[in-house]
Amino acid sequence: MALDRWIALIILGICLAYGYAAWFTMDAGLAPFMRRTPIWPSTFPKLLSIIAIVSCFIIIFNVEKSDLKIGEIDYRRLHEYHLGQAIFLLVLMVAYALCLRPLGFLFSTMAFLILGSAVLGERKVILMVIVAAIATFVVWYLVQEVLGIYLRPLPGFIGG
Amino acid sequence: MLEGLLIGLQTALSIQNLLMVIAGCLIGTFIGMLPGLGPMSIIAIMIPVAISMGDPSAALILLAGVYYGAIFGGSTSSILLNAPGVAGTVASSFDGYPMARQGKAGKALTIAAISSFAGGTIGAILLMIFAPALSSVALLFHSSEYFALMVVGLSAIAAFAGTGQVAKALLMTTLGLIMATVGEGALFNLPRFTMGILDLQSGFGFITLAMAMFALPEALFLVLKKKETATDGGEISDLRISGAEARAIAPVIGRQSLQGFFIGVLPGAGATIASFLGYAVERNIATKAEQDEFGKGSIKGLAAPETANNAACTGSFVPLLTLGIPGSGTTAILLGALIALNVTPGPRLMIDEPQVFWAVIMSMFIGNLVLLILNLPLIPYIAKVLSVPRNFLIPFILFFTLMGAYIGQNNATELLLLVGFGVCATALKFADYPLAPLLIGFILGGMMEDNFARSMQLYDGVAFIWERPMTLGLLIIAVVLVALPSYRARRARLNAAGVADGD
Question: Which letter, b or e, does each residue of B191-223 get, where b requires 16 or more Cβ atoms within 10 Å of its Cβ?
C-alpha cells in the first residue's frame, strides 16, 4: 500500500474519533434552551465527519484509481537524502521551544542559529558566532523595541 | 469611484504607506528569489510584523507588496538559475533560462519586469472596475448564499488543486474545516474538541498553521535535497530591449493581462494555472516560425507567463475584497491577517472602510511602479542573495518561522504545535496531498459555520437550500465541480482501457 493510502488510514482514525465525539458525546450536556434551536454545536462537525470519512474511504480503496505521483522528493528513498540533518534540526526546534522561556531569548536564539549552521556542515566557528550574535540582537531589538512585544532576554535566574 | 480613488491616493501616498510598499516589494523580491520559498511562506513569515503595526491599510499594503515582490523575485531565480522560487513562475523558466544561457539575462529580466508591470497594472485597473460592481451584487446575498458561495469556493479549490485526485483535495479541505471547529464554537461559545487542554480553548493559531503548512515543509525540503547547482556568477548587464521586441510582446501582454486576471478571479485557479495556460495559449496562436522559438528563448514565451501570473495575482484579490472569500492560499493568509486586524473583507468593506479598499488598489499601482523602477536596476545586486550559503540560510528560515508563531501568540506551546504540524505537513507533501486547501478550509471554517448556523436559524432547518433558488444553484455548481473531474478521469481511464484491450 502506498504512503498516501496509509496516511488516509491514519486520517480515517482521527476522523472516526472526531465523528464519535461529535455524534455521541457532545449533545448530552446541552442546555435545554439550546436544544430548541434547529442547529446545535455538534451539527456542523457531524456533517464534516461524514464527508471526511467518505473521502478517506475513497482514497483507501483507491476508487479514483490514481497513481501516486512522486514529487520533488521520493519518500521511498528518504535515507539517500540528508535525513539526519532534517531530524536534528527538528529536534533543535523542539529544544528551542522548550528553552525559550527558561533560558531567555538571547541565549536560546544564538545557540539555535549556531547549532543549526553547525549541523548543516558549517565549520567557520568565528563567522557563525558573529552572524548569530548580530542576528539575535537585531531581531530582539526589532521585536522588543520596535514592535513592543516582550521577549525575556536573559535566563530567569539572572533576572531577565 | 473618483472619490474613492482620491481617498485611496491620499492613504497610499502617505510617507508611511509609501515606505511600506517599497519595503514590501524589496523584502518580497529578496526572499522570493530564494529557491524553495514561495509567496505563501514569505507572507506567513511577514504576518506577525504586519499585524503588530495595527493599521489595516498599512498592513495590507505591506503584505500585497511582499506578494508582488515574491512573484517578481521568483521569476528572477527562474530566469537566472532555472530554479523557480514560486510555482507561478515555473513557466517563466521555459524561455527565461535559455535566454540567460545565451547571455541575454539582462534582457530577460527587463522583459519579465515590464510584463509583470503591465500585467499588474492592467489587472489593478480591471480590479477597480469589477470589484465595486461585484460587491454591489454581493450586498444582495444572504447568509445562506454566503454559505453556498463558500462551498462553491472550497469545491473549486478542491477540484483544481487535486489534479485528478479530487478525493485527496476534498479530504484536505474537510480536515481544514475540522481543525477550525476546535476551540470555542460559533454557537453559544461552547468549547469543542479541546480534549480538556486549555491551550486549545481558543483554537489552533492561524499563523502557526500557515507556517507549519508552507514555510516549514519547504525549509525541510531544502535541507533534505542534495545541494543545489551553484550560480554561474555571470554578470547581469544590458538591461535594454529594442523597439521591435517591445512591439512583439505588446499584444501578448494585452491578451495575457485580461486572460490572467479572469483566471485569477476564479477560486482555486491562481497564478500557477494562469501562467501555464498563458504560455500554452500564446504558443498555439503564434506563427510557425515563432512557435519553434518557444522553449529556446522566445521573448513572447517569457512575456506571456510573466504577464499572466501578475494579472492573476491581482485578480485573486477580487473575491477576497468583495466577497471575503479567498480563492488561493496566499489570499487566504491575507484574509487571516485582515481578520486579526479587525477588518472583515466582504461587500461591506467598500462602504465601511473605503480607505482600506482603495488604498490597496492604489498601492498596487505604486507597488508595480516600485518593482519596475526601483527593483529592476537593483536586480544585479539583489541577485547576490542567491550566493548566501545554505548553511546559514536554512537555520535563519527556521528561526523566522519559529519567531512568527511565537510572536503571534506569545506562547511556547505554539512552537511545539508548529513543529508537530510541520512534520505532518511534510509527510502529506511526500504523499502528494495538496496543502493549500487545508489552510483555506481552516480559515473559511469559522465563517462558513456562522453563515450555516444563521441560515438554519432563519429558516428553522435546512429549508433554505430549496427555498432560496440562488443557494440551490450555487450548491449544485459545487457538487458538479467536485464530481466532474472524477467523472471525466474515470471516462478517460475507461477509454484508455478499451484501447489497451485487456491490460
Answer: bbbeeeeebbeebbbbbbbbbbbbbbbbbbbbb
Name the residue type at position B53: M
Out of A48, A58, A116, the one facing B178 most closely (by C-beta) is A48
Question: Is residue A55 domain-shared with residue A92, that is, in the same domain?
Answer: no
Nearest to B418 by CA among B194, B221, B212, B206: B212
Which of B53, B181, B393, B455 would you mutate first to test chain A, the one with the most A CBs within 10 A?
A: B181
ipTM above 0.90, yes or no: no
Residue ending a domain, among A24, A43, A68, is A68
The model's pLDDT over A53-100, given as tens digits with 9 standing for 90+, comes to 999 998 888 777 666 666 667 777 777 778 888 889 999 999 998 888
Q: Are B456 and A47 in contact (CB under 8 A)?
A: no
Sequence-ordered strand ranges (E) for B290-354: none
CA dist B428 and B443 (Å) reads: 19
Would A75 be classed as within a structural domain? no
The pLDDT, as a whole number, for residue B500 is 44
**Per-residue 3-state assignment (H helix, E strand, C coil) for B168-221:** HHHHHHHHHHHHHCCEECCCCCCEECCCCCHHHCCCCCHHHHHHHHHHHHHHHH
Give the range of the structural domain holding residue A50, as residue numbers without chain letter: 3-68
Residue where one domain finishes, among candidates A68, A96, A118 = A68
In this structure, the answer to whether residues A88 and A154 fall within a common structural domain is yes
Note whether residue A76 is domain-resident.
no
| In a shared domain, residues A110 and A150 | yes
Q: Does B369 touch chain A (CB under 8 A)?
A: no
Q: What are the pLDDT digits (tens) for A135-154?
A: 888 888 877 776 666 777 77
Chain A residue with minimum CA distance to B487: A64
Indicate the pTM of the whole model. 0.77
Spatial distance between the Cα atoms of B103 and B65, rounded to a whole number of angstroms: 30
Which grid coordinates belong to B64? 500585497
Mean pLDDT of chain B: 80
Overall residue count recorded for chain A in this entry: 160
Q: Tell me the shortest Cα–Cα distance from A159 to chain B, in angstroms.
A: 19
Residue B317 near residue B271 (C-beta atoms within 8 A): no
Residue A16 pLDDT level (bands cut at 50, 70, 90): very high
